[in-house]
Design goal:
Elements: H1 5-13, H2 20-28, E1 48-51, E2 65-66, H3 68-76, E3 80-92, E4 95-105, H4 119-125, E5 139-143, E6 158-162, H5 163-169, H6 174-177, H7 190-197, H8 207-213
Parallel strand pairs: 1-4
Antiparallel strand pairs: 1-2, 3-4, 5-6
The chain binds zinc ion.
């Protein structure tokens, strides 16, 4: 049975993302003073950046990264083309190839208009600053209308808040707590998040990814 287009799209763009790889890769790549290290020795640090068929990243937030196994499988299933590779190679009786660092889907996947509701995306929407006082430190999340008053965990009811503001507000509404939000929370589009993201580039970029990440950014004078 042929699945509807919507469902197939989600198969490709949703389930194969591993955003936690960004975090893990970033931690693994922290340079240690005095110790030259080969960050690609561990295959876990070799995710592939996934580009759409138009050679733009499939997703920016989270950055579309697949684990090396998924990338190689997709190569063999002829779903992707290899654009760039790591120096690191994998060998087996039936396989001998460099680990792909950038791959491009052969079939164009239409990007969704709205980003996933994730903690990272929420921080990004709020520019990594407390929406009550502007503090960029000790960030957490505030239910604008508290959960005990029926407030839901949605783009429209969750705002970035620093721990002190969160404590101070407690289980009250902003009005009850006499605290003002800088901006009413709304659901951002992918485009809006991408614009925000230009100020906060991902801290982990393999050299061969750079060309594909920000090609559409106008250089600032
Ligand atoms: Zn605050």
């Amino acid at each position: 049975m042929v699945k509807p287009a919507q469902e197939r799209r989600e198969d490709t763009s949703g389930t194969m993302f591993h955003p936690e790889l960004i975090e893990r890769a970033a931690r693994a790549r922290q340079p240690v003073d005095g110790f030259p290290h080969d960050e690609s020795r561990n295959l876990a640090n070799c995710p592939a950046l996934v580009l759409n068929a138009d050679y733009t990243p499939l997703s920016y937030y989270p950055l579309s990264l697949w684990p090396w196994q998924t990338a190689i499988k997709a190569v063999f299933l002829e779903r992707v083309d290899i654009v760039a590779s790591y120096e690191r190679a994998v060998h087996s009786p039936s396989l001998d190839m460099k680990v792909p660092s950038v791959i491009a889907l052969r079939q164009y996947v239409r990007p969704s208009e709205f980003p996933a509701f994730t903690r990272f995306n929420l921080f990004l929407r709020d520019r990594f600053a407390c929406q009550y006082c502007g503090n960029p430190q000790h960030l957490t999340f505030d239910h604008v209308v508290p959960r005990r008053l029926g407030g839901r965990t949605t783009w429209e009811n969750v705002a970035t808040a620093c721990a002190p503001c969160n404590m101070k507000k407690g289980g009250r509404t902003p009005r009850q707590a006499r605290m003002r939000l800088a901006v009413e929370p709304t659901r951002p589009t992918n485009w809006q998040l991408q614009e925000r993201g230009k100020a906060f580039p991902p801290n982990y970029l393999h050299e061969s990814w750079r060309d594909w990440l920000y090609w559409d950014v106008e250089l600032e004078a």
